[in-house]
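step: validate -> pass
step: tokenize input -> pass
step: predict -> running
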Amino acid sequence: MARSPRPMAMVFYDKAIDHDALRAAMAAHPEDDLRVCRLDAENREDGPYRVYRKGKERHFLKETGIMRRGLPHGRMRRYASNGDILEEVHYKKGLRHGPAFRRSLDKGRNEFFIGKQRSGLERKEIEENYVEGKRDGAYHEKTTLEIVEALRVPSEEGFKLEEFVTESVSILTGQYKNNERFGEWHYEGFNGEKQVQRYNEKGQPDGEWMTTYRDGRQRKENFSNGRLHGLLEEVTPDGYHVFQYYEDGRINQMKTEFINSYYETTRRIDWVRFVFKKDPLSTEERRERQAQNARFFGEPEKLADLVLHAAQRGELKPD
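step: predict -> pass
step: emit ->
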């Protein structure tokens, strides 16, 4: 459900803001927001303007900027009730153009447990760039999550509440091109997760994505034009591999089963050879296996990598 617009009173000035008229307007409209601006001969806003918002006790400065012939032009700022800058954007003839900064604050929700209370506070800061109304250039997003836990602990009077604060940060960086994510992006999550993302010029996932989890698991995914396509591989902390094979966003069960069966067989053969101190796979054996599976898949480069996974981890020792 859309919110109804807040009531706003207009205060006009000629050459400079009349502060006496502004105070009188605040007194006459104690529950309304105020917009202070100048009009040109065609009744369009033209020149610096200010917006004052009704707070709990008084009006506070909410927004400043410049208008040219009824359109934003130049720097615009929005403020919190304590005066902190929440947003700074540059405009050119009504379109965002140039560096921009945004800060948001979300108090989150409170959670109650037996003997303790937990609340979250999320702060987000974004730095980006615009060219003629579209995101274009470097993007940096920092999110800070602050968790406050109030625990009930014993005291001389019986019990008291003690607060414990933990803070974690996530970072997202990359590039925009023509208002779409483009190229290589990097994400570091709250729980230690790290991810490398890749996008094409349409802003679609494209190429290899690599995710490393806190517990040591690694996950490689291949995308083509926004859909999973090719080999998906997950490596557990103990070095075990699990594979899935996708074609145009859908899993190919036959190839998936074949890959996992082939890997398991190769791993067992190598384990037996290691226990009985047999020689590792020879170059000819490796090439023969690669050729056999390349004919099955029709993708010799990817299959060559698949066959040599164990060798790369030190499980097989090439000649």
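step: describe -> The first helix runs from residue 19 to 28.
step: cleanup -> pass
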